[in-house]
Design brief:
The complex is a heterodimer. Chain A is of the alpha/beta class. In chain A, about 40% of the residues lie in helices and about 25% in strands. Chain A has six helices and eight strands. In chain A, a hairpin with a 6-residue loop joins strand 7 (about 195-205) and strand 8 (about 210-220). Chain A is elongated. Helices cover about 65% and strands about 0% of the residues of chain B. In chain B, helix 2 (about 20-40) packs across helix 3, helix 5 (about 115-135) runs antiparallel to helix 8 and helix 6 (about 135-145) packs antiparallel against helix 7. Chain B is globular and about 60 Å long. In chain B, about 30% of the residues are buried. Classes of the chains: A alpha/beta, B mainly alpha. Chains A and B meet through helix 2, helix 3 and helix 4 of A and helix 2, helix 4, helix 5, helix 6 and helix 8 of B.
Chain lengths: ~220, ~200
């Protein structure tokens, strides 16, 4: 491969996108090591990608969902006789229903074994295929997370990102818990899509958490 | 880091142990070796082991009778040594198998400098500017491809683009960034690397 071949092929971009086949990869790397123009091109593009990842990652972490705060209303504005009596009747009906139907049902469910849908997540290694969790809408599921534990971390944080890249929640994981597979129960409030579980380690000596790895997984709802 | 021509005088300075030349040589090819190995080895320790061993063998070859026969192809020589070390790494489970018994030369370490930290800050600002000027869709594409490491075909399908769109997106961003990158690496003396070095 000569320089004009590399330019015509957009070899720099393909190299960083891992799109070169093995033969092209060998040829481009042989050329790259000898060609100052291509070496500069690849180094600049690689730095751009690394900086972009850091900036896009911090933007994702900083994104917050703003909940609109309702305007304050007068304290007793709603309490009028024409409204209060039917409201009381409805509340009474709810209390009776809960005591006669819902609570006995929950007690029964407490004593029944239940299987959660689950998927294994290996952080810090790239899975060839994206893990898939098959669940029902509103039903919780479990992620079985395997972490590469290191003595330099005192604890860990697992972050869940939704498909647009917003962080949904974070959960702390102790170093002791991380020595084994960590089961994380995810509430059944998510829509179908590709989510990402990211894990950060808290250094023993303090300081900012360090990225350990991330693994996307797909949630499919029946 | 300025490019220096890899010619016979350069190879001779390298062979004779000129520290500045060694420093430049290691810094220049370390970046390329790390980029090459990043896609092939997962462990930072393994990448560092292969990198170190590559340089050990290149310096050993330089000092052997006959040395390097084609100085102008020094880069290709480094690449082929790296390929051999990588192959051995795949085959062996223990790094000690691939080392020879001769004492290893100490390799110059990259040095952080104030100018490098300033340059890194400038480059970070430039990348922010490039990302801010992109449509939100393109930022999301970059995030899903490079940060979330999603399958590229899936990303293209989700965003209704083809693979060439990804390449053009990366190409344009790189072209915007490259001028500042070049300016910053030319400003530093040869052999000194920036804080933001890849």
């Amino acid at each position: 491969m000569d320089h004009s071949d590399a330019v015509h092929l957009k070899a720099t971009e393909r190299y960083l996108l891992n799109e070169l086949d093995p033969e092209q990869l060998d040829q481009f790397e042989e050329h790259l090591f000898d060609c100052p123009d291509c070496a500069l091109d690849v180094r600049a593009a690689a730095m751009l990608v690394e900086q972009s990842k850091a900036i896009l990652s911090e933007r994702t972490s900083a994104a917050a969902v703003k909940v609109p705060v309702p305007a304050p209303r007068p304290w007793l504005a709603w309490l009028r006789p024409a409204l209060a009596v039917p409201l009381m009747a409805v509340l009474l009906a709810v209390v009776v229903y809960q005591n006669l139907v819902v609570y006995p049902g929950m007690k029964n469910a407490e004593n029944t074994a239940y299987l959660f849908p689950a998927a294994s997540i290996n952080v810090a290694t790239r899975s060839a295929a994206t893990p898939v969790v098959r669940s029902k809408s509103g039903e919780p599921f479990v992620l079985l997370v395997n972490l590469p534990t290191e003595n330099r971390f005192s604890s860990y944080i697992a972050d869940l990102y939704d498909p647009p890249g917003h962080i949904k929640w974070s959960v702390p994981i102790s170093a002791e818990t991380a020595n084994d597979t960590v089961p994380i129960r995810i509430p059944g409030q998510l829509n179908a899509g590709i989510y990402t579980l990211a894990v950060r380690g808290i250094p023993q000596e303090g300081g900012s958490p360090l990225d350990i790895g991330r693994q996307p997984f797909e949630l499919r709802l029946n | 880091m300025q490019f220096q021509a890899f010619d016979a005088p350069y190879v001779e300075r390298l062979r004779s142990g000129d520290f500045r030349t060694q420093e430049h040589f290691v810094a220049y090819f370390s970046e390329l070796i790390q980029l090459k190995l990043r896609a092939r080895l997962r462990s930072p320790q393994a990448i560092e082991d292969v990198r170190q061993e590559t340089f050990v063998r290149v310096f050993a070859a330089l000092r052997s009778p006959g040395g390097i026969r084609q100085p102008e192809r020094l880069g290709a020589f480094v690449n082929s040594i790296c390929n051999n070390v990588l192959l051995e790494h795949y085959r062996s489970s223990s790094r000690s198998d691939s080392l020879d018994d001769e004492p290893q030369n100490e390799l110059p370490d990259p040095v952080m400098d104030v100018l490098g930290a300033v340059a890194a800050k400038q480059m970070e600002e430039k990348v922010r500017e490039i990302l801010d000027e992109m449509p939100e869709r393109d930022r999301r594409i970059l995030r899903e491809v490079f940060l979330e490491e999603r399958d590229k075909d899936d990303v293209c399908q989700d965003f209704a683009v083809d693979r060439d769109y990804l390449r053009v997106l990366l190409h344009r961003a790189k072209q915007s960034f490259k001028l500042l990158y070049l300016k910053n690496i030319e400003r530093r003396p040869p052999g000194l690397t920036a804080a933001g070095k890849v």
